[in-house]
């Protein structure tokens, strides 16, 4: 029975409006009521390589999921971008190749409040090739940056991480299971979701859970939780 329900749910997709974003391209905006999430699957996309996501969000919620990736196959790696106590956080769990040597992950929490119902630009990096113009060399960057009212705040390191194994499924606004007792599904608006290393735009989801996410992008309106 659960399989049939899941199959029916997977048939629903969300439509998107197409406006103009600040770069002159198409803008895809999604509205989350708090009881749902989106899943995106891409062909020819290796989510385990160097990655750079960007998106914009607006919310009043203090604790919620923004983006989540889980391990592929039997790997227990995972990655989450979330809001905790009104501040953006980043979590990466990277197990060793055999699973017995421990793990080498990452964890950052920002200092800025982002649950102000104003648009915040978010950049997420994982082993992204960052060019240091002063030293003229490339080194990996992992973590995130937020832009609030034109001011950029960055929380990253430049450590080398290997054997990261994540599936090609990207979850926006939540996951099928709770990620913690306090971090809930997203309430608010998320727009202009992109992955720059592979040139991907998140436009048509594979799954719109419960068909509850709607196209919604208004500067004057707020999303009320279900």
Automatic annotation (TrEMBL):
PROSITE patterns: LAM_G_DOMAIN
Source organism, top-level taxon: Eukaryota
CDD domains per UniProt: LamG
Laminin G domain mapped to chain residues: 27-217
Keyword Protein biosynthesis: no
Residues in the signal sequence: 1-19
Keyword terms: Signal
InterPro entries: ConA-like_dom_sf, Laminin_G
Keyword match Signal: yes
Protein name: Laminin subunit alpha
Taxonomic source organism: Biomphalaria pfeifferi
